[in-house]
Design a protein that fits this description.
The structure holds two protein chains of two kinds. By secondary structure, chain A is of the alpha/beta class. Chain A has one domain: Nucleotidyltransferase, domain 5 (2-Layer Sandwich). Chain A contains nine helices and seven strands, in the order βααβββαβααββαααα.
Chain lengths: ~220, ~130
């Protein structure tokens, strides 16, 4: 798989379709489009991570697509390319304690807002995956399954996923008994078994079904 | 006899609207016109703003209904919906694109299919 980035004029059909929202919005006069996506809404343990990415106009990075369709190695490689090619990117991380306090939806929004705050220059339009940010006074478009439809959102999903996976790897070093290395905190059969055996650790989301029962 | 297809087409939008209402959608606009073309139906499914494309066809000889949304149609849907979103200053809404396919069955009664999220980009050409 080539990792080179191309100009928008000379790319294939898939790339054109994935960049369609960006192109249309640039016709509407927006210059700083940020793609926003989150990783880790579902798992029983670990933080929720959001990423915001702003690309220069007309840039398409080959290979970028929904992070769930990529292998971990591909994601790692692409995340490096995205970070080097993007005008700006930001990551927001919200801890399990906060998730338990304000619920996962609000925590996801908080993570996205944090990711936006990290940006050096505020974007003028937000493309978000299936979620809106009512507290942010920037024009925005939330698209269901946006990570499969839109290049910036897909790139953000890759950054968020890679960051979260790295964090879970570190947590694996701290709490090795749960084997976070393999399931990244998701509620797999193995994870549920370990959870029953050892009880919850500080990074488990105690408000989640599956963890609540063993607290 | 001459205008029968038109009648069927007109009726199909009505059938689609009724069908969506029965599914719990709230219809906001019918045949909304923008300079980028017409949006057949705009509805609310819970909190999600749904742009609905209605396809009426007779018989299955033109292949599977999902094929009806080709690249041009996809671009039209995106352009027109963006126009609607900016004109109405829609904020804090999540968007989705659905397809309603109405086919005339053998017994003359319409057969209705709802396909959610038709815009998914396929990467088969990748």
């Amino acid at each position: 798989m080539g990792l080179k980035s191309n100009n928008i004029c000379e790319m294939g059909r898939f790339a054109r379709e994935l960049s369609y929202w960006e192109v249309q919005l640039s016709y509407h006069g927006y210059t700083h489009l940020a793609g926003l996506d989150e990783a880790g809404r579902g798992p029983l343990a670990g933080p929720v991570v959001a990423a915001a990415v702003i690309f220069p106009k007309g840039l398409f990075i080959e290979g970028v697509r929904d992070s769930k369709q990529l292998t971990p190695v591909q994601r790692e490689k692409l995340s490096l390319t995205i970070q080097s090619q993007a005008i700006d990117y930001g990551i927001g991380i919200v801890d399990p304690e906060v998730i338990d306090r304000i619920n996962i939806l609000q925590a996801t929004r908080l993570a996205m807002q944090q990711a936006l705050l990290v940006l050096k220059q505020p974007p003028d339009f937000l493309l978000i995956d299936a979620l809106n940010l009512p507290d942010v006074a920037i024009s925005q478009l939330a698209i269901v399954k946006g990570d499969t439809l839109c290049h910036s959102i897909a790139a953000a999903s890759i950054l968020a996923k890679v960051t979260r996976d790295r964090l879970m790897l570190e947590y694996h070093g701290v709490y090795p008994q749960y084997n976070f290395f393999s399931h990244k905190g998701y509620g797999t059969a193995e994870h549920l078994k370990k959870l029953k055996e050892f009880g919850p650790c500080p990074i488990h989301r105690r408000s989640f079904k599956g963890v609540k029962e063993v607290c | 006899m001459l205008n029968q297809p038109l009648v069927f087409w007109k009726k199909s939008e009505e059938i689609a609207a009724q069908f969506l209402l029965s599914r719990g959608y709230r219809i906001l606009e019918r045949n909304y016109r923008t300079p980028r073309g017409e949006l057949d139906l705009i509805a609310l499914d819970g909190d999600v703003l749904v742009f609905v494309e209605v396809k009426a066809r007779r018989g299955v000889r033109f292949g599977e209904p999902q094929w009806a949304v080709d690249q041009r149609k996809r671009q039209h849907l995106m352009k027109a919906s963006l126009f609607y979103l900016t004109r109405k200053r829609v904020q804090n809404r999540c968007c989705r694109f659905d397809l309603v396919v109405i086919q005339e069955g053998h017994d003359g009664r319409p057969q209705i299919d709802l396909i959610q999220n038709v815009l998914e980009v396929e990467n088969t050409t990748f």
